[in-house]
């Protein structure tokens, strides 16, 4: 099954929520863990136990593993592998973007089904040109994986660049969405190539959102995004959105039952869309 098909099945089974796995130093401390490789290991293992087969998506942020060097990357690899075939899909947040053979190497590292760090999907940056993402799309198609392209992100400084008008008369972000529409053309029930659009974005051209792919929505929950924001921004395509939150759920840890309950409560709130 393609990533788009698997994402659709997972959302139907578990709801749309994506739980971000972001082992900040202060969060490790809140869980009573040391800011160390051992603390990271226990944190990641607890997240797998809590969320595998309970939510549709988890989104490990690679940087919080990489900061511990090779040992942290090894824990990230094991976390991704432990989540495979559980029904919960992994979106590895790496925001890669490069050209030619380098882009191809990144794609192989994260999207090849036999790679140690294989994920169901990754995030990428289009700011070397949308065409530079071709190796990521090719690897995703080959391995039934997914790609989420930055379009309109939730950080306030992004709007200066992402809303800038191009020679076509469209904004940079809108051009990303148009290109995603071409990439997903004919896919059913949903394409495998998605966009990253923040829950705190001021406004969107709703017509551009009909690109037949999933929409990863950071900024929901503790960062200020609400169900009303999701309804306002994505009213015509709410069945495609994957709202992502980290702190609202992870703050309930390290108790596995409490983590699962928090995720379930968040999914219940999202059912009002």
Structural class: alpha/beta
SSE topology string: HEHHEHHEHEHEHHEEHEHH
Integer-rounded radius of gyration: 18 Å
| N→C terminal distance | 27 Å
Annotation, overall tally of beta strands? 8
Oligomer: single chain
The number of helical runs is 12
Biggest sheet features: 8 strands, parallel, barrel
Low-confidence stretches: none
Spatial ordering of strands, largest sheet: 1-2-3-4-5-6-7-8
Strand content: 5-15%
* Average pLDDT: 96
Envelope shape: globular
Helical fraction equals 40-55%
Give a brief rundown of this model.
The protein has 273 residues and is α/β, with parallel strands linked by helices. The protein contains twelve helices and eight strands.
Write the layout of secondary structure elements.
Blueprint: H1 3-14, E1 18-21, H2 25-30, H3 37-51, E2 57-60, H4 62-66, H5 70-83, E3 89-96, H6 100-111, E4 121-124, H7 134-143, E5 146-152, H8 159-162, H9 172-183, E6 193-197, E7 215-217, H10 227-234, E8 241-245, H11 247-250, H12 256-270
Parallel strand pairs: 1-2, 1-8, 2-3, 3-4, 4-5, 5-6, 6-7, 7-8
What does this structure look like?
The chain is an alpha/beta fold and 273 residues long. The chain is 43% helix and 15% strand. It is built from twelve helices and eight strands. It has helices spanning 3-14, 25-30, 37-51, 62-66, 70-83, 100-111, 134-143, 159-162, 172-183, 227-234, 247-250, 256-270; strands at 18-21, 57-60, 89-96, 121-124, 146-152, 193-197, 215-217, 241-245. An eight-stranded parallel β-barrel has the order 1-2-3-4-5-6-7-8, surrounded by six helices. Strand 3, helix 6 (100-111) and strand 4 (121-124) form a beta-alpha-beta unit. The model has no long low-confidence stretch (mean pLDDT 96).
